[in-house]
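Methods — Computational structure assignment.
A single polypeptide chain was analysed. Its primary sequence is given first, followed by the predicted tertiary structure written as structure tokens.
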Amino acid sequence: MSLFVVEYTYTPETSSRRDDHRGDHRGWIAEMIRRKVVRSTGPLADGSGAFIIADGPDEETVTRLFQQDPFVQAKLVENVRVSEWHPVMGEFSE
């Protein structure tokens, strides 16, 4: 498995609707953590998006998986960027 950074970009216009779907989104993320797909996640401090560290076999599989997030399905994420990540030091390095 490889590590990927999944970057969500939000717009201010979807803020209140994200609040409406936050429980479903966090439930989905919690299931991904339980399945050891998501290793860490959290919003950016300025509210403009979120970073998620995920395990996966390849970029295409991770991209397809994150299309199932309730935030994405409700069209509350402006952009989803998936990038393979090769940490060389610290907690996530091999």
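Note: The chain has a mean pLDDT of 96.
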